[in-house]
TrEMBL record:
It holds the Pfam family SIR2. HAMAP family: Sirtuin_ClassIII. The active site is at H124. It comes from Kocuria carniphila. This is NAD-dependent protein deacylase.
Length: 251
């Protein structure tokens, strides 16, 4: 059982005394569940696939079948994973009486929800929230189950207008869901403690959210086994994984 004695004492004090906690998570939060990050050496998705080719509106216009195939593969990969003790620890902490814990995630994998947590904001959208690229109507077609990446797969057609159904994620060059970003900034500003878990802090405007907390004097704690763009502005950094740190922090 991970014990709190491995938690840096100044971080344990902050966590114990906080009533309003805002947690910002990135791809590192889901690594221990088997979902690859984007930028980690060798294992990162962007090491193997070109984001410009696959995660932009232009790529979709250019070749929707290539994009759809890639997202269908990622959806199958994510469906084959389970939340890990870090996800469960956040859900447990959120359920504690007197605790107002808000989660804002850049992840599109729904693992926080599958761990029983309520997510305030999916700032980069949700892989499983499909919609028509034409009329915007929600689509319940789902993804075909595929195990290996395939080059191309035709997206399903929209029931309303016959347009192509696309993943509900935010592509590079697309605006973030308005409410999601604003709610995340407010949650960061109004917190007693902000935890930043498993993000490189390279993608904007999501990467600016911790700064809104810092500007209000809210303590920012980074949990990441490696140095990131967040490290310099964090008040405390804990070089640990999400799966190790969060259960110890919550126990
Ligand atoms: C790359 C970067 C330079 N580019 C951007 O930021 C761009 C452009 C830009 C805008 N403003 C800027 C300012 C400066 C520079 C550039 C920009 N931003 C945009 O395009 C945004 C939209 C960005 C959203 C892109 N979509 C994603 N995902 C969904 C899709 C999909 O999933 O396919 S971003 C994608 O990368 C994000 C960031 O990555 P991280 O989560 O941080 O993951 P990463 O792999 O980088 O790092 C993992 C970390 O985990 C750590 N780790 C590893 N293992 C563990 C472990 N076990 N435990 C804990 N931590 C761990 C590692 O050490 C590491 O630090 C992910 O969250 C993921 O969502 N849109 C927009 O600006 O629109 C404008 C606009 C405004 C109005 C109207 C019209 C347009
Ligand atoms: Zn449509």
């Amino acid at each position: 059982m991970p014990s709190s004695d491995r938690v840096p004492p100044e971080i344990l004090d902050l966590a114990r005394s906080a009533r309003r906690v805002t947690v910002l998570t990135g791809a590192g939060m889901s690594v221990e569940s088997g979902v690859p990050t984007f930028r980690d050496a060798q294992t990162g998705l962007w090491e193997r696939f070109d984001p410009v080719e696959l995660a932009t509106p232009e790529a979709w216009e250019e070749d929707p079948a290539q994009c759809w195939a890639w997202y269908a593969w990622r959806a199958s990969l994510v469906r084959g994973t389970e939340p890990h003790p870090g996800h469960l620890a956040l859900a447990q902490w959120q359920a504690r009486p007197g605790i107002d814990l808000r989660i804002s995630t850049q992840n599109v994998d729904a693992l926080h929800e599958r761990a029983g947590a309520t997510v305030l904001a999916h700032v980069h959208g949700d892989l499983f929230a499909l919609r028509c690229a034409g009329c915007g109507a929600p689509a319940d077609t789902g993804y075909p189950p595929i195990t290996e990446p395939v080059a191309r797969l035709d997206p399903p057609a929209c029931h309303q207008c016959g347009g192509l159904v696309r993943p509900g994620v935010v592509w590079f060059g697309e605006a973030l869901p308005e409410r999601a970003f604003q709610d995340s900034v407010e949650a960061a500003q109004e917190a007693d403690l902000v935890l930043v878990v498993g993000t490189s802090g390279l993608v904007y405007p999501a990467a600016s959210i911790p700064d809104f907390a810092g500007a209000r004097g809210v303590p920012v704690v980074e949990i990441n086994p490696r140095v990131s763009e967040v490290s310099a502005s964090a008040d405390h950094t804990w070089r640990a994984t999400a799966g190790q740190a969060l259960p110890a922090l919550v126990s």
